[in-house]
Write a structure and sequence with these properties.
6-stranded antiparallel sheet; 6 helices; alpha+beta; 5-stranded mixed sheet; single chain
């Protein structure tokens, strides 16, 4: 194998089958619509019921293992469900410790609004390959565009509702063929002399190039969110989850209305006095306590314009962690009532310029259906249990336990020299 271009793929099972310890519920739709029809035909079974008529039932059935619809066509789905997050069984799908196994030239390709595993996969795999090949030519590159999942179409100028303009276009076929020409056919076309990192920054709507990832010169900047009170309490009910109104349409959308719910806690900065460009992994640090043995914590970052528009910066998945899996180990650590825990979400990957006059919003919630399964909040896993309970969750935001968002800020000089 001389060269490859893994596009919009993963680096670890913990951002592919699970995210932050939470099962990715989109596997249901993928199997039902992409795998099951062909399997049913091959097995001589009756055609399946249209997706729209079974979608809600399939997505909400608990225990997950009690779902019968896929038994005859995807038995491996049930094998997956029998192995919880961080189970060593999943090591067959872990790439992060295997970069030394290939000498191929690797072009890592994804987009900021790709499925959440895509940005994590492309950036992690690129950095891992560079580290594994230290001391010799890395022969690896990274492209991160403004698009959603799938090959970018020429002429497209928006991702969801957010415009990025003609500058965001990229000829995917030409890009891949140039890579293969250089490393398979040994044509000296200059690919190996170009900067290996190329990322598109939304808001500024420009491409920037770099010799490394993370972008050199990026510095951490911490925002501490405060309210008049020292904490905020809300009731979280798995049977009444926060629902993504744009679940069927990928990309950036206006989420201003989501904060109207009583089970969503949000914090805004003051309007920015100058442009602020963030490229890389943001980190949210949230102190919580609850009367339940377990909860999920979603930490969503929005770019809020002067008109109130609140654009999401990524697809759901990198912005969630199950509290019992906060240590990212197979041994779950259930919560004790009233005890305060600090939960960290460190893979909030984005590239965005928050323009002068805009605000940065951090919204905290415990559900975001239907993308991922819901925490039952009983301490039991939804793969084998169905009973759920309401949790009373406290978000702490005071001097002793600050609510923080740490941003990888790019120097203004980098954007001034960026491609238009």
């Amino acid at each position: 194998l001389k060269a490859m271009a893994p596009a919009m793929t993963f680096a670890s099972p913990w951002q592919f089958w699970y995210s932050g310890g939470v099962w990715d519920n989109s596997w249901i739709a993928w199997i039902y619509n992409n795998i099951a029809p062909d399997r049913r035909k091959r097995l001589g079974l009756l055609p399946e019921t249209p997706w729209d008529s079974v979608r809600d039932r399939l997505r909400t059935t608990v225990p997950l293992l009690s779902l019968k619809d896929l038994e005859g066509v995807a038995p491996w789905y049930y094998e997956w469900l029998k192995h919880p997050a961080y189970d060593p069984w999943w090591n067959w799908a872990e790439l992060r410790d295997k970069y030394g196994r290939t000498s191929a030239a690797v072009l890592n390709f994804s987009a900021w609004h790709d499925e959440a595993y895509g940005p994590h996969g492309a950036t992690t795999n690129f950095a891992g390959l560079v580290a594994a090949r230290r001391g010799s030519p890395a022969r690896s590159a990274l492209i991160m565009g403004p698009w959603s999942h799938g090959v970018p179409r020429m002429g497209r100028t928006a991702v969801g509702e957010r415009e990025y303009g003609p500058a965001g276009s990229l000829d995917y076929d030409e890009t891949i063929l140039r890579w293969m020409d250089r490393y398979v056919r040994n044509i000296d076309n200059g690919v190996d002399h170009e900067k290996p990192v190329r990322v598109f920054v939304l808001g500024s709507n420009k491409w920037i190039t770099s010799d490394a990832w993370p972008i050199p010169g990026t510095t951490p900047d911490t925002i501490i969110f405060e309210k008049v009170s020292e904490s905020t309490v809300f009731a979280a009910d798995p049977k009444n989850p926060v629902v993504d109104p744009y679940a069927e349409t990928a990309g950036a959308h206006d989420y201003r209305d989501i904060v109207r719910r009583n089970d969503v806690v949000f914090f805004d900065t003051k309007p920015l006095t100058s442009d602020l460009t963030v490229v890389g992994a943001m980190r949210a640090e949230v102190a919580i306590s609850t009367d339940a043995p377990d909860v999920d914590i979603w930490a969503k970052v929005y770019d809020v314009g002067p008109d109130g528009t609140a654009y999401n910066l990524m697809s759901p998945g990198l912005d969630v962690v199950r509290a019992s899996y906060r240590r990212a180990t197979a041994q779950r650590d259930l919560l004790k009532p009233g005890t305060i825990y600090r939960v960290s979400l460190g893979d909030l990957l984005a590239a965005n310029t928050f323009k002068r006059g805009h605000m940065i919003r951090l919204a905290i919630m415990t559900t975001f259906a239907p993308h991922f399964t819901r925490n039952l909040q009983t301490g039991e896993l939804e793969s084998t249990s169905a009973a759920s309970r309401v949790a009373h969750v406290t978000i702490h935001h005071n001097d002793l336990r600050p609510l923080r968002l740490i941003l990888p800020v790019l120097p203004a000089s980098v954007m001034l020299s960026a491609d238009k």
